[in-house]
């Protein structure tokens, strides 16, 4: 397999949960310029398409339910607390496989782990309509299974990227990879209402759950966890990639004591929790907010939800470019990470506080877009920091911090349903703002961009 095909496939594969489309494009371009290689453009396009599908699959697991929950709650007569329970049940399973997925990826490689996750998730997605009709307990179990499959994807992709993406391109590459999630959200929010109106809400789960096996077939035949495992990669190509990446081959043991003794690790964990509380609430509850507060119908809710995600896709890449530029100008990685993550915390905090003062749906949508747009600068902050402080154990570290992030999703999503039964949307946003401020303080006091675990 050509280098461009290999890297494009791996990177695009995360467009779904590990989001990786454009990322590898940039690092591949740099490598190609140095080696003056020529590649088959047809194969490259096929690889990019396969990776793009994987990104969309995984993101749809959350986005589709946030839209489908509206007609489902009407059909099954669910109250807000029950809706919150259903939305949060996904995160119960997602939580279970964060650390396990990181250990598995760091010890055996990310290819098998990511492939397993997509297949498992696809089966659970296709079973969702059947489970819902059988009863709430069955639906909760299937949602947990969906979370289990999706939970391994992010640690696995982080492991793969640490082996394929050069250190000098880390912020830009990771931002490009993770922006694939936002583009997947755009696709889901745009097409789910159409499918629901035309074929009914079960169609969104059948449609995208059935596509995972196709992606898996190509993934098995084309992808590799690291350059060393690619038999068709030329020696010169392999040497260049390996020498420019911080992470090399799989590790044999995980130094848990050393990892957990480092304050920057805990800063990452706490900050991930604070960040994800607000992010997951917006992901799962935004269509409901648009429907109940702004009085948009189902189609309008889906379409207006697209704008914040488009803003995030743009802002993530802008932030990545800014971060790498600042580093190239001589600013320390630590300072850059603190600047970018402070924007990722304080920006959303400011715009969420404005929601209680706006008097038009247009201004509310604008505040949402600006909130999530500034949130995306976190891709060059905490989301790039795993490979800064522990490149050999980036999968495990991502699993640790994202476990905290998932807990925020579980508690935040469920708590929102409870708060809405006894309070208001203003109360929901106040909790998110408070956690953003806590995250800002912890991050600036204890984070670093230097390696602390070798």
Automatic annotation (TrEMBL):
<dbReference type="GO" id="GO:0042170">
    <property type="term" value="C:plastid membrane"/>
</dbReference>
<keyword id="KW-0812">Transmembrane</keyword>
<dbReference type="InterPro" id="IPR011701">
    <property type="entry name" value="MFS"/>
</dbReference>
<feature type="transmembrane region" description="Helical">
    <location>
        <begin position="201"/>
        <end position="220"/>
    </location>
</feature>
<protein>
    <recommendedName>
        <fullName>Major facilitator superfamily (MFS) profile domain-containing protein</fullName>
    </recommendedName>
</protein>
<dbReference type="GO" id="GO:0005315">
    <property type="term" value="F:phosphate transmembrane transporter activity"/>
</dbReference>
<dbReference type="InterPro" id="IPR020846">
    <property type="entry name" value="MFS_dom"/>
</dbReference>
<dbReference type="InterPro" id="IPR044777">
    <property type="entry name" value="SLC17A9-like"/>
</dbReference>
<keyword id="KW-0934">Plastid</keyword>
<dbReference type="InterPro" id="IPR036259">
    <property type="entry name" value="MFS_trans_sf"/>
</dbReference>
<feature type="domain" description="Major facilitator superfamily (MFS) profile">
    <location>
        <begin position="44"/>
        <end position="451"/>
    </location>
</feature>
<dbReference type="GO" id="GO:0009507">
    <property type="term" value="C:chloroplast"/>
</dbReference>
<feature type="transmembrane region" description="Helical">
    <location>
        <begin position="396"/>
        <end position="420"/>
    </location>
</feature>
<dbReference type="InterPro" id="IPR050382">
    <property type="entry name" value="MFS_Na/Anion_cotransporter"/>
</dbReference>
<feature type="transmembrane region" description="Helical">
    <location>
        <begin position="85"/>
        <end position="105"/>
    </location>
</feature>
<keyword id="KW-1133">Transmembrane helix</keyword>
<feature type="transmembrane region" description="Helical">
    <location>
        <begin position="173"/>
        <end position="195"/>
    </location>
</feature>
<feature type="transmembrane region" description="Helical">
    <location>
        <begin position="45"/>
        <end position="65"/>
    </location>
</feature>
<feature type="transmembrane region" description="Helical">
    <location>
        <begin position="138"/>
        <end position="161"/>
    </location>
</feature>
<keyword id="KW-0809">Transit peptide</keyword>
<feature type="transmembrane region" description="Helical">
    <location>
        <begin position="427"/>
        <end position="446"/>
    </location>
</feature>
<dbReference type="Pfam" id="PF07690">
    <property type="entry name" value="MFS_1"/>
</dbReference>
<feature type="transmembrane region" description="Helical">
    <location>
        <begin position="112"/>
        <end position="132"/>
    </location>
</feature>
<keyword id="KW-0472">Membrane</keyword>
<keyword id="KW-0150">Chloroplast</keyword>
<comment type="similarity">
    <text>Belongs to the major facilitator superfamily. Sodium/anion cotransporter (TC 2.A.1.14) family.</text>
</comment>
